[in-house]
UniProtKB/TrEMBL annotation:
Superkingdom of the organism of origin: Bacteria
Span of the signal peptide: none
Family matches, as Pfam families: Sdh5
Protein's name in the database: FAD assembly factor SdhE
Cited InterPro entries: SDH, SDH_sf
Keyword hit for Chaperone: yes
Family per similarity comment: Belongs to the SdhE FAD assembly factor family.
Species classification: Bacteria, Pseudomonadati, Pseudomonadota, Magnetococcia, Magnetococcales
Keywords, in A-Z order: Chaperone
Amino acid sequence: MALTPEQQSQLDGFKRKVQYLAQTRSILEADRLWNAFLAGEGDSLTLADCQMCLALLHYPDADLYDWVSGLKPAPEALDPSWLQRLAKYCT
């Protein structure tokens, strides 16, 4: 489905915000995780994907990294498929 110019503008804005927040992480592991994820999937992110990324980026880096890497169980409120999607980029 093609996006309207307004929808495309909104999506581009979300992508820029996700990329900015991903580049300003407080721990190196989180920075690497988000940068690898964006390099692999950034061009194909949908508006819903960007909204999920923004929600995840509001969690503390150490917690999110522990959940993605399987060191700690994630809260039930988080979508496990998203954590698995990020885990592919966890090094």
